[in-house]
Amino acid sequence: WGYRLEKCRVKLYSLNRDQQWDDLGSGHISSAYVEHLQSVCLLVQSDSSDALILESKINSNTPYQRQQETLIVWSEAEGHGMALSFQDAEGCQQIWEDICRVQGKDPSVSITQDLLDESEDQFDDILETADVFDLPSCELGKLEDIDDFVTSILALPLPIHKERLALILENGDYIKNLLQLFRTCEDQGDTEGLHHLYEIIKAILFLNKTSLFEIMFSDECIMDVVGCLEYDPAMAQPKRHREFLTQHAKFKEVVPITDCELMQKIHQTYRVQYIHDILMPIPSMFEENFLSTLTTFIFLNKVEIVRMLHEDDNFLSEVFVQLRNETIDDDKQRELLFFFKEFCKFSQTLQPPNKDALFKTLTHLGILPVLKTVMSRKDLQIRSAATDILTYLVECSPSMIREFIMEEAQQSVDGNLFINLISEQMICDTDPELEGAIHLMGLLRALIHPENMLSTPSKCERSEFLNFFYKHCIQNFIAPLFAITSENICEGDNVVGADKNSPNNYQTAGLLSLILELLTFCVQHHTYYIKNYILSNDLLRRVLILMSSKHTFLTLSALRFMRGMIGLKDELYNCYIIKGNLFEPVVNAFLKNGTRYNMLNSAVIELFEYIRVENIRSLVIHIVEKFYKTLESIEYVQTFKGLKIRYDEEKEQQNQIRKNLHSILYSQILCRGIRVLEKKEKICIKEDSKEEEAVMPPLEDDFPDPYDKFMETKNPKENEDKVDLPKGTSSGSCKISSSPSAGGANEMSSQSSSSTVGLKNDPDDEEKDEGDEASPKKKPHLSS
């Protein structure tokens, strides 16, 4: 067993408690022997994180089903359905062969646990004992026996019994005969028989077999199946579901559909979805897996519908022609957008290559200019549907949307850009709960998220789009923040009033909170771009004005924005905060909150605790020097005392560094003076050598004074010792009696690690040093 990650790419789906397929992500699949499970497993490795998103043991008794050449479906032992959607049929065939090899099956079959493919030896004991599979004949008088039989088989633990029953029902017209009995019972008013038929049909659905669904959901049978499910014994009166489906549920064709197969598939999918959502009881925790195949049936129908519509060259073109028609009324346009919304929702079930191809087709047909036009309409339902469609497009291909926005900016004359229209719609949302604004804010976040931006050798989407965004767009969506924090609204950095344009207004505060949430996202992900914008516009000061709002959620949003900046530990941000004294609004809000133990109290303490733990020195010094006297009395947490300890440690460290630096600099200056004097000594020796050639050598007492000071020795042995640096004293230092020259004092040089130069702190000690020269250990030796 070996990995084949480079060949098999899949998308993984899981059936949740609501019987909906959840997308667990895409990756590469392989089959391999897993040692800790002692079995061959299916392994799916995520594309994004390289982590395993699936490790499923291939059990010998688990039914695996292959559908449409690129899909493998099965039920996990834990009671939930799983589906693997392959990018190509070849990869699906490879994994299917591995599954069949483990289970000992022929890879040509579409289901591994069909009864006809089971070995006779395995089930001889079951089949030969009693008459457990002696299904009663389909007669009116035996409905109770059929009910008891089917219900008892469904309760048996082994799947082989259900497989055998499904095979019997599939072969022949047993289900059609049951539905004929339903019509007879209904005509005769046989309530007891109708109740038995309800239980029988429900049990057949719970067998979870696609082959049975194909029979029951055919045009011939599906309405009778719905009729059987109307007669729930728990209900006093039957529900009129058939009446709703035939008379009240109207199929609307925004554009006529000429393909009969497509029309039949649409009707079937709607009715089966109705059965699943309305007629079938909510399964208990022990029955969650009973309808997994039904959900898969609906899922595959939706995939087929999207495929057929995509392949119809005329249908989508006609839809766009009508959408671009400015003369159509709002009702018609609303229906067209509702269709497109449902179409895009169905398209989420496609595999990535097919989905990409579909959305490229929609882009070529002009979906984005159409959405820009309809989002400007006054009708709320039209705008909402257009926003939902745009959401599907952004989730599928955000790069495609960004490319359109950039091209639009180059061609636009009036500056009316699509992305600015999104910001405007968000700002102008009239809903008190701002549901539309929240939706649009999520769109903006997806568009400016760096992680989904492409980077190639020829193009860097991140730098191009973010440069464009911060130059042309950011000021539009934060315009309310600038307007509300202007001098006309605020007095002394305090919010006044409670009108619509004040952060004390609930709806306005909610909008500002959304804006701050997006700005905090930018601080975390657009380090360079947002930093320039914050510093050039003094943005943090404006944001902190909102901390005086009466709405705590807005105060917390402002605090989160500042916390995001501090969390980057950027000294440029720290200097900006210190220079502007921007901790003052935070401290004021903290003190105003008093002794109340709430989220604001915790958030402010966490901010200061983070600064203490991370030891952000510049902020520690600033906070202690500016606010410690105010915060000193707060003792229920040790945060502020801890900041003071950090401050004292920092000051002590700075003092020690200052002393050490002073000592090092002084040593370097003196030693530089020594080297200058050594040079002068060499010059004097050379001059004396020249004079010796011409005249008699002078007496020892006639040597110049500098030479007397630096070259006198106590014994001949020391005169013979020649070293490059002064000889150390017993304490590891040398003492110099003469002062260095001014030129030498202005230069600094590094000293050898093997020698240490002592400092003379008091010039009055010079005479004492000269007196100590009698000691050989303290006398410097200079090289000639």
From TrEMBL:
<dbReference type="InterPro" id="IPR016024">
    <property type="entry name" value="ARM-type_fold"/>
</dbReference>
<dbReference type="InterPro" id="IPR051137">
    <property type="entry name" value="PP4R3-like"/>
</dbReference>
<feature type="compositionally biased region" description="Polar residues">
    <location>
        <begin position="747"/>
        <end position="758"/>
    </location>
</feature>
<feature type="compositionally biased region" description="Acidic residues">
    <location>
        <begin position="763"/>
        <end position="773"/>
    </location>
</feature>
<dbReference type="GO" id="GO:0006974">
    <property type="term" value="P:DNA damage response"/>
</dbReference>
<feature type="region of interest" description="Disordered">
    <location>
        <begin position="689"/>
        <end position="784"/>
    </location>
</feature>
<dbReference type="InterPro" id="IPR011993">
    <property type="entry name" value="PH-like_dom_sf"/>
</dbReference>
<feature type="domain" description="PP4R3 EVH1-like">
    <location>
        <begin position="8"/>
        <end position="103"/>
    </location>
</feature>
<feature type="compositionally biased region" description="Low complexity">
    <location>
        <begin position="728"/>
        <end position="744"/>
    </location>
</feature>
<dbReference type="InterPro" id="IPR055236">
    <property type="entry name" value="EVH1_PP4R3"/>
</dbReference>
<feature type="domain" description="Serine/threonine-protein phosphatase 4 regulatory subunit 3-like central">
    <location>
        <begin position="146"/>
        <end position="649"/>
    </location>
</feature>
<feature type="compositionally biased region" description="Basic and acidic residues">
    <location>
        <begin position="706"/>
        <end position="725"/>
    </location>
</feature>
<dbReference type="GO" id="GO:0005654">
    <property type="term" value="C:nucleoplasm"/>
</dbReference>
<dbReference type="InterPro" id="IPR006887">
    <property type="entry name" value="P4R3-like_central_dom"/>
</dbReference>
<dbReference type="GO" id="GO:0030289">
    <property type="term" value="C:protein phosphatase 4 complex"/>
</dbReference>
<comment type="similarity">
    <text>Belongs to the SMEK family.</text>
</comment>
<dbReference type="Pfam" id="PF22972">
    <property type="entry name" value="EVH1_PP4R3"/>
</dbReference>
<dbReference type="GO" id="GO:0072542">
    <property type="term" value="F:protein phosphatase activator activity"/>
</dbReference>
<protein>
    <submittedName>
        <fullName>Protein phosphatase 4 regulatory subunit 3C</fullName>
    </submittedName>
</protein>
<dbReference type="Pfam" id="PF04802">
    <property type="entry name" value="PP4R3"/>
</dbReference>
